[in-house]
Amino acid sequence: MQTKQLKLDPERIDGELIAEAAEVIRRGCLVVFPTETVYGLGADATNEDAVKDIFRAKGRPGDNPLIIHVASPDEAAKYTETCELYYRIAEAFMPGPITVILPSRDNIPLATRAGLPTVAVRCPENKIARALISAAGVPIAAPSANLSGSPSPTSFKHVVDDMNGRCDVIIDGGDCDFGLESTIVKIDGDGAVTLLRPGRITVGDLESIGITVRVADAVVDKLGEGEVALSPGMKYRHYAPGAELILLEGSREACARYIKGVGKERVALISHTDDVEYYKGELPTVIIYDFGLRGDMAAQAHRLFSILRSADKEDFDLILAPLPEKDGIGLALYNRMIRAAAHKIIRL
Ligand code: AMP
Ligand code: MG
């Protein structure tokens, strides 16, 4: 398949190029577009054939439902049964990186929601994304625009690596602001939500508007044998790098000692900026990736998938990374990193 690339400046959106991409969506074809979280592989969410093509292009298991993207929070009412709590969340955080699970209406095909009675809705804040959804006039179903199993793409180059030749259009809108996928919550009906996936909108953000948040076990722990995931995506080991990834908890001295004795040849270390010089002195043969300052969770969120993709291109035997704290945005990093590491944590 021939993939057309369209370059768009989010600050000066070219209406003709948006109209061209929107027409491709309306024809039932696939368009990759940027959002503030990661790039999405989009198709008309109401067109079953188009949605099936998304699953094919990514190699995504058919039982892992898609998020539908709408141009304004109110549009959700056309496709789902909204409720008071939804509007409270929308008022505070939309457009923005939060997805809400609601009962679906019949106009969303079962293929989009993997046979579930519910559907996930999000209204992104990225200007290109919103212009595209508005111009298309239909909700856009879009999972992350990576091949299933590789890290979500946060730059145009990542998308081209995974999706060139697999979709009709790729919009180049530069790097994604945040770099981790949206927060996902399920409304429980009693003024509370269950957090299914942590993201930039944190537990504290939700609590600040009076919402009780229950964190689903699978956000921080391994699913038990035979346990059913509240969100089908939770059971998949996403973002898995080719090399073994292990998360370390401990002082930099303890980490350096551990790495010296690890007995592997090609070792990479993801290090906070604060410790890069120290590790370079102690571990001259180890390749070091700069993760951002220890306290700068936004920088680390922005870099994580990019670092994992770069590391994947090298033939490392082992990649080591610091175990993040679980508070604020740290919970989103923790969730992605324990899954990439298949829950391998060493406490030193
Ligand atoms: P992605 O689009 O790749 O960021 O993944 C979307 C995530 O949303 C997956 O983990 C899905 O399992 C989850 N999801 C989508 N729809 C639903 C739903 N109706 N109920 C629960 N989880 C959902
Ligand atoms: Mg994904």
Describe the model.
Helix content is 30%, strand content 20%. The chain contains eleven helices and 16 strands. The strands form two sheets. Strands 1-8-2-3-7-4-6-5-9-10-11 form an eleven-stranded mixed β-sheet, with helices on both faces. Helix 1 (15-26) packs across helix 5. Adenosine monophosphate binds at residues 64-67, 101, 113, 116, 118-120, 143-144, 181, 184, 196, 231-233.
Shape: globular
User: Any idea of the CATH class of the largest domain?
Assistant: Alpha Beta
Helix content: 25-40%
Q: What name does CATH use for the topology of the largest domain?
A: DHBP synthase
The number of E-state strands comes to 16
Mean pLDDT, to the nearest integer, reads 95
Order of helices and strands: EHEEHEHHEEHEHEEEHEEHEHEHEHE
Number of helices: 11
Largest sheet: 11 strands, mixed
Strand order of the largest sheet: 1-8-2-3-7-4-6-5-9-10-11
> Measured on Cα atoms, how large is the radius of gyration?
20 Å
Q: What small molecules does the structure contain?
A: adenosine monophosphate, magnesium ion
Based on helices, strands and strand pairing, what is the structural class? alpha/beta
What oligomeric state do these chains adopt? single chain
**CATH homologous group name of the largest domain:** DHBP synthase
